[in-house]
Amino acid sequence: MTDTPHIPLTFGWEEWVGLPDLALPAIRAKVDTGARTSVLHAVDIEPFGTPDRPRVRFVVNPVPGRYDIEVACSADLVGQREVTSSNGETEWRYFIQTHVDIGGQLHPIEMSLTNRASMMYRMLIGRQALESLGAMVDPTAAHRLPVLSYDVYSRADAPKAVKRPLRLAVLTQDAGNYSIRALIRAAQARDHVIEAIETSRCYMNINVTRPEVHYDGKPLPQFDAIIPRIGVPMTSYGLAVVRQFETTGAWCLNRSSAISASRDKLHALQVMARKGIPMPVTAFAKSPKDTDYVVKLVGGAPLVVKLTKGAQGRGVVLAETELAAASVISAFRDLDAELLTQEFIKEADGEDLRCLVIGSKVVAAMKRKAKIGDFRANLHQGGKALSVEISEEEADIAVKAARALGLQVAGVDILRSNSGPKVLEVNSSPGLQGIEKASGVDVADLIIRHIESRLRPVQHLPKTNPRAKRRE
Q1: Whether CATH 2.40.70.10 fits 9-153
Q2: Which of 109, 300, 396, 439 has the most beta carbons within 10 angstroms of its beta carbon?
Q3: Residue 444, pLDDT above cutoff 70
Q4: pLDDT at 381
Q5: Which residue, among 422, 426, 396, has the nearest Cα to 344 in the 3D structure?
Q6: How far apart are CA 217 and CA 341, in angstroms?
Q7: Mean pLDDT, to the nearest integer, of 84-88?
Q8: Cβ–Cβ < 8 Å for 402, 259
Q9: Where do the ATP-grasp domain residues begin and end (predicted)?
């Protein structure tokens, strides 16, 4: 079907039309020359989008009396204007432009959105639309145009609704970094409402009946999904905020328990060890008296000493000798820091793999190579990102590691050793810039699509419509 600039049309006082842009293949409309503008029934109306492309999302119950049938829609917003109805009520309404399907031909039409739950017709075609269509009205007849049926909404092969616009939030301390901007771009490209929320500025109303997260002096709205991007310094408070969002019923891309496990390297290694996931030999002790033992457990020097809580290669030291290892361990303990020792995989030669896992699949991978003189391949430590092909075994191990910790999205770091791939650590907030550039994969878009796949519109079957606005 294509836009048709003008064809003669004759409407009856009642007609069936389709609104294909809104996934509404059939809707019965009243043709009313007494009304200036056209109207579509809508509830849960919410503006979103960007200043250069404002949008609005809403829900339509196309079949009168059937509130279990819901179609979630979104459309370009053309304005907001005051409208006075036939009964004298005045309200501000959002106006959209979409296409109306009349006998297989598409015509642009402008309409306002309002709750018409108490009305017989879910749509009203006003004289402004009739004039733009060059149409006439036969007030003595109904259905001068092809007759459709509401049966299309119950067929197994019925057209699916436009992907439900979701309300999303990204928890971050830096809304300007690449990963956050990429996620916002990807979400907006798929018509979702998304905002970056500064984690440290969230505060919580913790109660049994109505738990809330507050921000800037008022409670935040109910979000469909939360994307936690919590920096290591914000881990403790950030986890409390994520838990509170979980309490409100929001779906979290990575749950607080999974983030907590991944942030504690010792905890993460213990969990993965129970699942049989290969990793470098690791040792942990509290007492200074056991320093020599933990060094020997990992095969002696050279060995790696690392803090149990850290990220981006910070708090990771290569000890070339056992004397150096003892000195580093002593210095860390003087700072009251928990640390572990780990065997040094020399054959990795300053390289590791970063596998980006979403759900149950590795969607992108890169090889990170340490700068000259360093063994840490982290990009934040000057490492270089390169494209790479990974094996099925490496992909399988990466997915198992993410799954073991309960992460929906994870960056799994793997070393290639003479005895096979070994998981170094798992990151719950992996950076996107390096891996997108190295792999050519739009990871941010895949994350948003994964969220969509996990969230579905909930159909309610109330005996009466709780959203209906009473009309006198």
Answers
A1: yes
A2: 109
A3: yes
A4: 54
A5: 422
A6: 46
A7: 69
A8: no
A9: 269-452
Q: Give the per-residue pLDDT at 456.
A: 53
* Identity of residue 198: E
User: CA 18 → CA 6, 66, 162, 347, 471, distances in Å?
Assistant: 18, 18, 14, 65, 27
User: Percentage of the chain with pLDDT > 70?
Assistant: 88
Please give the CATH superfamily to which domain 348-454 belongs: ATP-grasp fold, B domain (3.30.470.20)
Distances, alpha carbon 215 to alpha carbons 24, 179, 193, 207, 241, in Å: 37, 22, 17, 17, 11
Tokens at 397, concatenated? 């191990």
**Contact present, 210 and 218 (Cβ < 8 Å):** no
Question: Would you identify the CATH topology of the domain 167-252?
Answer: Rossmann fold (3.40.50)
Question: Which pLDDT does position 237 carry in this prediction?
Answer: 95
Element (H, E) at 266: helix 265-274
pLDDT-derived band at 206 (thresholds 50, 70, 90) equals confident
Angle, CA of 239, 362 and 310, to the nearest 5°: 35
- Residue range(s) occupied by CATH 3.30.470.20 in the chain: 348-454
- CATH 2.40.70.10 maps onto the chain at 9-153
* pLDDT confidence of residue 445: 97
Q: Give the angle 190-194-197 at the CA atoms, nearest 5°.
A: 155
Length of the chain: 472
Which pLDDT band holds residue 461 (cuts at 50, 70, 90)?
very low
Task: Name, in order, each residue with C-beta under 8 angstroms of 278's C-beta and a sequence gap of 6 or more.
Answer: 397, 419, 420, 421, 422, 423
Check: CATH 3.30.1490.20 for 281-344? yes
Give the residue carrying structure tokens 């793999």.
353
Name the strand (E) or helix (H) holding 238. Answer: helix 235-248
pTM listed for this prediction:
0.67
Residue corresponding to tokens 């402004």 = 128
Taking alpha carbons only, the member of 186, 148, 140, 190 closest to residue 165 is: 190
pLDDT at 374: 57
pLDDT value for 277: 96
Q: Which two tokens stand for residue 370?
A: 């340490």
Residue that is written with structure tokens 């759900």 in the block: 359
What DSSP element (H or E) covers 274? helix 265-274
